[in-house]
């Protein structure tokens, strides 16, 4: 029997052929992940760009006939390739693209991580999620100097504080329908929270789309400083935690768009003189993607765009930040010419 094809223009709709579906429909990982879990979000949201989430590390192997073409399509990374990581700030040559501070409002680099030996968030039980939270918070509480901070559980946060942290770009939003359909919002807000240092230049989101989103951010365009802080934090955390990782795909994440470096390096840049099409064209030429002022699925406000590396797999962390610096410099020159 043939299955109905998912609707819309998602990578899921493109790559879940009846043949792939037939091959994968009875497979189940050791943690109990089935094809139905993987494709639930894309089926419920036909406007998905991608439409799939892995329930655990093994999903990427067992459901490779679906994930591999999606990964190749999104990252330009074929099954024969091996991901390489480079988090050494000494290798980074990313001069500040806006030394006078006229265009770039702020710079943020985040990576996603999940703990090895647990399923990912869509499959995690309430109890396991609490263990993940306790494990991560214990590791974070051991950090010192600039990285030292406090953990704020979402369940104990008042709604005004929560809304302010979201509006100020420090905290994840609630109720994402793509995550909801994937099962990633189960038991919300239990075991979710935010860790941050005093200056909010180092932050960690706990148990959102991935178990950890590790963030370094600050006003201005000093990409070197933001990257160096992130690299230092990752070095410290790798000594305390073991993250899910594969030889081929690098760091493993819920969504295949985040595999590899699991890194999104972005600037918030003010470009009121350029049209959306002009910005998209320059971004595309530099391998960058454009989001709105409040992140994914938001619009640009006051001419401020979020510009970041599109590819996260098959490119090193250092190279992704270098490309962001080059693309931001190109956007700034076009903006300067437009005025
Ligand atoms: P993610 O970065 O985790 O993929 P989002 O695109 O939703 O997810 O972004 C999360 C938050 O980070 C949003 O509030 C977004 O505006 C904020 N953000 C992203 N880049 C920057 C930046 N360069 N400066 C300040 N805030 C940023
Ligand atoms: N699942 C959503 C879609 O397919 C989001 C994909 C990328 N974003 C993410 N936060 N993982 O459109």
Automatic annotation (TrEMBL):
Q: Is Cytoplasm among the key words of this record? A: no
Q: Does the keyword ATP-binding apply?
A: yes
UniProtKB keywords? ATP-binding, Kinase, Nucleotide-binding, Transferase
Per UniProt, residues of the Phosphagen kinase C-terminal domain are: 103-338
The residues listed in the UniProt record as binding ATP, with positions renumbered to this chain, are 106-110, 169, 213, 264-268, 291-296
GO BP annotations, alphabetical order: phosphocreatine biosynthetic process
The GO molecular function terms of this record are: ATP binding; creatine kinase activity
The Phosphagen kinase N-terminal domain sits at 1-76
Cellular component per GO, a single term = extracellular space
The family database entries (InterPro entries) matched by this protein are listed as: ATP-guanido_PTrfase, ATP-guanido_PTrfase_AS, ATP-guanido_PTrfase_cat, ATP-guanido_PTrfase_N, ATP-guanido_PTrfase_N_sf, Gln_synth/guanido_kin_cat_dom
In the record, the note on similarity to other proteins reads:
Belongs to the ATP:guanido phosphotransferase family.
| Name of this protein | Arginine kinase
Organism of origin: Oceanithermus desulfurans NBRC 100063
């Amino acid at each position: 029997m043939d299955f109905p094809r998912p609707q819309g223009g998602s990578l899921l709709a493109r790559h879940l052929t009846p043949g792939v579906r037939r091959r994968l429909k009875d497979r189940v990982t050791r943690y109990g992940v089935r094809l139905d879990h993987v494709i639930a979000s894309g089926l419920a949201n036909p406007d998905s760009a991608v439409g799939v989430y892995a329930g655990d590390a093994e999903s990427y192997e067992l459901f490779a006939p679906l994930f591999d073409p999606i990964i190749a399509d999104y990252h330009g990374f074929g099954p024969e390739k091996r991901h390489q990581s480079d988090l050494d700030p000494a290798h980074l040559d990313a001069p500040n693209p806006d030394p006078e501070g006229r265009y770039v409002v702020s710079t943020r680099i985040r990576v996603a991580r999940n703990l090895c030996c647990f399923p990912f968030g869509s499959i995690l039980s309430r109890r396991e999620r609490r263990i993940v939270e306790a494990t991560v918070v214990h590791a974070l509480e051991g950090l010192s100097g600039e990285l030292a901070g406090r953990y704020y559980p979402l369940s104990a946060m008042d709604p005004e504080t929560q809304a302010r942290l979201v509006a100020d770009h420090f905290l994840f939003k609630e109720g994402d329908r793509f995550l909801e359909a994937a099962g990633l919002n189960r038991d919300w807000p239990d075991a979710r929270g935010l860790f941050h240092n005093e200056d909010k230049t180092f932050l960690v989101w706990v148990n959102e789309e991935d178990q950890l989103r590790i963030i370094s951010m600050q006003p201005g365009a000093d990409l070197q400083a933001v990257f160096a802080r992130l690299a230092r934090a990752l070095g410290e955390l790798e000594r305390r935690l073991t993250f899910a990782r594969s030889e081929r795909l690098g760091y493993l994440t819920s969504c295949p768009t985040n595999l590899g470096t699991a890194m999104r390096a972005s600037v918030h840049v003010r470009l009121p003189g350029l049209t959306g099409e002009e910005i998209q064209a320059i971004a595309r030429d530099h391998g960058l993607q454009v989001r709105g002022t409040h992140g994914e699925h938001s619009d640009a406000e006051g001419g401020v765009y979020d510009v970041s590396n599109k590819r996260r797999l098959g490119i090193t962390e250092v190279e992704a930040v270098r490309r962001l610096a080059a693309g931001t410099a190109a956007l700034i020159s076009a903006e300067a010419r437009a005025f």
